[in-house]
Amino acid sequence: MASYTVEKFELFKDYQFHVHKETDKTAYGFKRFLCDTCLVPTPIPYAGKPPNGLPTVYGTYHQLYRIDGELAAMSVIDILPNCVSGVYFVYAHKWEKCQLGKLSVLREAALAREFYAAGLKELKWVYLGFYIHSCQKMRYKGDYSPSYLLDTETYNWYPLNECTPILDKYRYGCFSNPSHSANEIIHHKVPEKKQKEMEGVMRATIRGSEMASTPVSKMPLSIWASYKQSILQTVDALGPDVSRKVFFLLS
Fold first, then answer.
1. Nearest Cα residue to 181 out of 167, 198, 196
2. CA-only gyration radius of the chain, Å
3. Before 146, cis peptide (omega within 30)?
4. At the N or C end, where does the chain have fewer CB atoms within 10 A?
C-alpha cells in the first residue's frame, strides 16, 4: 500500500525541483498528495489463492523502481475493480534520459494482464488520466496503442487515432458529434439555486486517510457563500442524478 518513507520523500523533492522548479515541498504535503487516499481497502475477489506478487486488496499503491538498490523512480497507482489507474510518477533526475515513465506504463499494462490472467476478467484496462493534446508533457500518453479517449458528451470511448484530427483543429473536441467541436469558449448561464435546493448533493472532508461526508444543503453558510458558484456550475454540468452520486471535495 502507499506509505511514507524518507527515501520516497527525498525522491519526490528531487523530482519536483528538477522538473517543476518547486522548492517548498514538505513531508506533510507529500503524505497528503501521494500517500493518503480516499480508497477503502477492499478484498480483491480472486477465485482461488492470490498469485504471488499481486495485491490482495483494492487501493492505492507505490510501485518502486530500483537500480542497483537505489530508488530511481516511483509510480503511484490505484488498483480498482476494472483498471490499473496511474496517479503520479516521479523519478530521480540523474536517470531522466532513461525515460523511466515509459517503463512504468508498460509495467502497469503488464500488471493489468496479470490480474486478468488471475481470473479478474473485468480488470483489463490501464487508465493514464487526463490527456491534454496541447500539452507536450501529456502527449506521451498517445504513444501507446490501442488507446482511447472519453467523449465528454456521451461518455463513450473512442480510438485515439480518430480523435487527434479533431483535437488538432479545435480547442474543444466532441468525438461523438464533431459538429459540436469549437474553438470559442461559450459561457453557459448557470441557473440560480438556493442552498436548501442542494438536497442529496454531498460534500466530502478528508482528515488523514479518513473521509467524512455532509449534505451541501446543511454546510455552514460561510462555506456555501465561498463555493456556491463552483458547486452550481458543477451540478449544472453533471446533471442532478450524477451530482447525487459523487462527493464534492472543496479545497
1. 167
2. 21
3. yes
4. C
Task: Give the burial string for 4-29 (b: 16+ CB within 10 Å, else e).
Answer: eeeebbebbbbbbeeeeeeeebeeee
| pLDDT tens string 61-72 | 999 999 999 999
Q: Report whether 65 contacts 74 (CB < 8 A).
A: yes
β-sheet with 70-80: strand ranges across: 42-43, 57-67, 70-80, 83-91, 125-127
CA distances from residue 131 to 89, 159, 164, 240 in whole angstroms, order as listed:
15, 13, 11, 27
Number of helices followed by number of strands (H, E) in the chain: 6, 10
The b-or-e profile of 209-226 (16+ CB within 10 A means b, else e) is bebeeeebbebeeeebee
The pLDDT assigned to 83 comes to 96
Distant-in-sequence, close-in-space partners of 230: CB < 8 Å, separation ≥ 6: 250
Q: What percent of the chain is modeled with pLDDT above 70?
A: 98
Residue indicated by cell numbers 476478467: 121
Chain position carrying cell 527525498: 10
| 3-class state of residue 67 by DSSP | strand
What's the DSSP call for residue 130? -
Question: Hey, what's the cell of 191?
Answer: 441557473
Residue 84: exposed, middle, or buried by beta-carbon count in 10 A (0-12, 13-18, 19+)? buried
Instruction: Answer yes or no: is pLDDT of 170 > 90.
Output: yes
Sign of CA dihedral 83, 78, 14, 7: negative
- The C-alpha cell of 123 is what? 480488470
pLDDT of residue 57: 96
- State residue 220's pLDDT score: 92
